[in-house]
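The freezer alarm interrupted the setup, so I double-checked each line after restarting. Inputs confirmed:
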Amino acid sequence: MSFARLIPALFILALLPPPGEPGQDRGLVGFRETQARGQRQLEARFDTFLRASNLEAWMKRLSARPQHLGSPYRKENAEFILAQFKAWGYDARIETFEIYYPTPKVRRLEMTEPVPYAAILTEPPLKGDPVTEMKSESLPSFNAYSPDGEVTAELVYVNQGIPRDYEELARRGISVRGKIVIARYGGCYRGVKPKVAAQHGAIGCLIYSDPLDGGYGQGDVTPEGAYRDGFGVERGSVLDITVAPGDPLTPGTGATKEAKRLAVRDAKVLAPIPTLPIGYNDALPLLKELKGRVAPESWRGALPITYHLGPGPCKVHLKLEFDWKLVPAYDVVAFLKGRERADEWIIRGNHADGWVAGASDPLSGLVSMMEEARAVGELVKTGWRPDRTLVYCAWDAEEPGIIGSTEWVEEHAAELKEKAAVYINTDSNGRGFLSAGGSASLERLVNQAAGDVRDPQTGVSVVERAAARSLTRGGAAGLGPQEFHLSALGSGSDFSPFYQHLGISSLNLSFGGEGRGGVGHSIYDTFAYFTRFIDPGFQYGVALAKTSGRIVLRLAEADIVPFEFTAFSAAMKRYVKEVTELAGQMRADTERENRLIDQGAFKVAADPLEKLRLPEKKEPVPGLDFSALEKALAKIDDAALRYGRAIGAFPRSGRSMTTETKKDLDRILYQAERALTREEGLARRPWFKHYIDAPGYYTGYSVKTIPGVREALEDRNWAEAQRQIPIAADVLSRFAAEIDKAAAAFEGRVK
Amino acid sequence: MSFARLIPALFILALLPPPGEPGQDRGLVGFRETQARGQRQLEARFDTFLRASNLEAWMKRLSARPQHLGSPYRKENAEFILAQFKAWGYDARIETFEIYYPTPKVRRLEMTEPVPYAAILTEPPLKGDPVTEMKSESLPSFNAYSPDGEVTAELVYVNQGIPRDYEELARRGISVRGKIVIARYGGCYRGVKPKVAAQHGAIGCLIYSDPLDGGYGQGDVTPEGAYRDGFGVERGSVLDITVAPGDPLTPGTGATKEAKRLAVRDAKVLAPIPTLPIGYNDALPLLKELKGRVAPESWRGALPITYHLGPGPCKVHLKLEFDWKLVPAYDVVAFLKGRERADEWIIRGNHADGWVAGASDPLSGLVSMMEEARAVGELVKTGWRPDRTLVYCAWDAEEPGIIGSTEWVEEHAAELKEKAAVYINTDSNGRGFLSAGGSASLERLVNQAAGDVRDPQTGVSVVERAAARSLTRGGAAGLGPQEFHLSALGSGSDFSPFYQHLGISSLNLSFGGEGRGGVGHSIYDTFAYFTRFIDPGFQYGVALAKTSGRIVLRLAEADIVPFEFTAFSAAMKRYVKEVTELAGQMRADTERENRLIDQGAFKVAADPLEKLRLPEKKEPVPGLDFSALEKALAKIDDAALRYGRAIGAFPRSGRSMTTETKKDLDRILYQAERALTREEGLARRPWFKHYIDAPGYYTGYSVKTIPGVREALEDRNWAEAQRQIPIAADVLSRFAAEIDKAAAAFEGRVK
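Predicted 3D structure, all chains:
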């Protein structure tokens, strides 16, 4: 082929938007066809501003010293971040809240019997990684919101310390009443462990990192490798974020200086018993001296011992004292006011506080968000301005219990309910695959936006890569190779107050799965560690900025807020199918087990020397009437299709709408998510108002979809489950009505 | 109730046979209805003779010194056993074979790089357990039939050393060519490990016991507990019993003094590369010094290290020299001649040789068989005599490769093909649940016989207890609570020559699953150990004698040999379904994987830093025509039903048969199993002639049903699989024809 003949082709290519994947829908949800090209050009310009070197410089700077809530460097960092946002053209400020917060004064753990052992409770510094040597500035290993206390008792090993672990103990006739439990990390949010232990009568709780779960059982440990060594400790909060995140003395209201505070004794989310995290070097001597029954197979970790349950003869003395006081949390909040729809807010956030330096957690996400915000600022300098208002937030006090974001959300609840269209969260980030969770009505937007972002290592879109990983691991077929579902949101990061307390459509985005190891919440989570193991070169930090940046820019610019409801409808069908099948499975299992009990099969099959308690007959699972939910699903489905048809016809109708009309429509659409909440909140935890997604009361991080129904089923509370079905159905029906309203408004326009 | 009124009831109860389970079929397969009560009375009398104290005394005596093949005490024990059988009225003799057998002269294992380490290779004695102190009499830890050799090379960790493990290594670009491999025990017969290693070019093989698989990862270790400690070593043969068990120089013929022997270089079953078993105390220093990639998750054991694959830097020097010579094996064979059908043999066997003392393996089974034989002898003293001939066998040289039994079977093959009706094997035994494997035509017999045996701990029948265990573990419904299927037989004990070489219907019986721990093939398998952990009081030794004794007595006395073919038909349907589904699953998996390869999904999903070799497209699985097997199944089904109707009508017909006619019928029935063999044997291993059950070529112990078809599928050799389908079908059709012949003979009688 001659050179001359190449020119026209090159010319055409140059004019095209950045390449999407073959076969991909080139239209953009929320945009008229004629606007899509312009939007993609804007995003291409946005990309050109992104610099990995900025991420690197900021992470280095922000992680140079320990920067936990209340530390001097935390304040310096907040001011640094504030200055950046101002420099990039944002109307930025620091909002300060006063948080009731404990820091350790006395931490003593020792084995008194059968052999004395004093726990080390100290992470040795690493040569050449100066932040690990800043002992005086950093908090030692502890669990925030453990009470003060001094207890001495025999130890019992409780596996992960979740309810079914205590069922196994009970089968073996083991009670933790009056004992200290030792649980390994994993299986739930760590704050669930002392909660459940106390429910069973335990008086103290140790939480250790078993080498199986993230130490030498997974890979080489620090300093040679990326995994946690025997000294490394996972600090962390044990505030009960499943009841309510945020400052424990000001639930539901912003913890401003003048806020009305609960008496400490009335706070409902403080851990009930003294709790301390330890590394496996400290756990091994204790676990080695436990006798009694051998732990069930799935309970055993990678320590070179036979795991026994106890109680004792290992006896432990635990003494904890904290300095409880109000400390300031500094949220940096930066506004970029929208052009025509300034009262519609697209909110973007990542926390800034770490447990020590916090390079991976949270700075890897924060510096990506900062670069995204800076690039948006660069666009503004070229004369562009978003149609809707952007709000960038660098939260403080996420680590102690999602506090900085929660206080801000509670403080501004009324305004947020009115104006907040979407909240987009990030947190830790690393090399690997895109993960995205959130409101299913944003699924199409995320697929389209991420479908336009190239994976740095392979060159395919980040959606295609994530889908390929799922498929090659035997994941569900039926998803196209370039589509993925958003996962449902539980808790564990700053989306929780936006999404579950106020019903603001939310997203949580990250890359990961290829960065090796993990030393989160220890002194070893440093810049040196991150750049060696997690995302060397910050390529995935940039990929995250491209992905979340695109989502922000599309949310900011779309003609109509880019929600899409057939994906929402499909998600609701999956959830309803799950709870229906859960009831059916429980019914079949109960019938089978009761029948076997009647036949004496468990008695006969039991090893008489093992003396396991035999299962007892359970109340049969009654027939539950799910028809209300089925009807609501039909309404959602109809509304989603109707809205799709309406908006599909609209761009081609040639008629335009006034800005006011668009705003009215936008408001119906983005406030529809509020219809999924109920003011009285969930049982046991009224702070959680979203009736489709909530963190499990006994999982903490992972989600329970349709939680009212699902958790009632899991509790075998059939009457409550039946009562919750029409309530969930009502919530879905109200949502459908909002979508219908939006569709009708469109139809009115295009007729 | 007055005393007087009780008397009649007691009288009736005294006349009743031992209680069966409610609802159980009280008829006995092979017996006329009128005979069943008499048979059960015989069995009740048999039970009264059984004494746990005999089992205890014999085990103590037989395990008092090391008694491996070729040892002085082995000969003494054979003579002791012989004397017992003679005293009990048996026509007993010792048959001696000359076995080519290596004993260790030099065993040296050391790490030369990166740090020197000399392996211990020694099990310390236990105080108070004298047999563990008899070093000079016992064989040290070694793998029998490893070649002599001296090799030095880098080490590679190969997990269990089965073919799919080498596929995983290849994905990671790791070759074992010129290396020494270290494999953990498990996943296959140990002899498969050096075989597969050598196929991949390895020059040496270490096999170690990971603590995960039977050491502290499972429970407390010796001497406090029942599990293997770091010094304990599993000795064992690496003779290729999947090609042919027995003396390696006399395949197919008895290894008598004058037998023609192969040149050693022509023996096909010797291990190809120097192989040595070690304990985890010796494995840990080596594995700790392996670097390179981290082992896949499922490969990791319970040692306190990150498991790496190597090769190296750990470099190992292994030197092995053996004393190769012919040693005598002493099979004790004891006949109790039958009354009218003396040419129909019911053969009962258990091996007597151990690796050291061999208390659990094999004496726990042997002493039970001895007590069974003694009780039968007591019945004879009361004037009773079996209708068919009983043959009790105490095999030598099972441990080195199922040699004693194989040589006897090969030596007497012609007579056995003619006369052997059934072989019933036992081996190790312990507290717990009945396991039974074997010819499905004996399934009804085993269910009935074991259904009349009470579990010592619970009082229900041992069948009901085994079924309850299966059901409470989520096992298949559909089995009644008092029925269980016989499992198919692979290899690993003395049934193999009877069943798979000659086509003699066989059973393998044991109790187990509740005895804790296991130190098999080490010096710690002693009387003290067994009576502490495995079956204190020998209750389950007695239960085994009751179970196998009943089966023997029913086989000896039945009017017609007690085969039943609807269970056989059902088993064949299961097997055919399995291979058909295997082909279907492989087809679907191949299609899916090829499609994902075409889409580039594996390439895109791979971590580029991991550099895993991507899967390559595989030849699609063609449609295979299983109709020949389906047709054969229909024939089996028809024949089984026809035979059932015929024999069902027979006892009620009132007509009797002459003994000669019964013998003719018996012969058709018990020789029917021969129809499942083919003279040319299986591909790669002509010694194995049974076409329904064989040990897997790459599993060794566990079975491959319909092995011609199944192993061809597993090898992705579609042409061979298709070729094997009509062959397997032909074998089944020939079996059906024999059953038809038997049914016709009955029909002739009853018309």
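Quick read of the result. The first strand of chain A starts at residue 91 and ends at 113.
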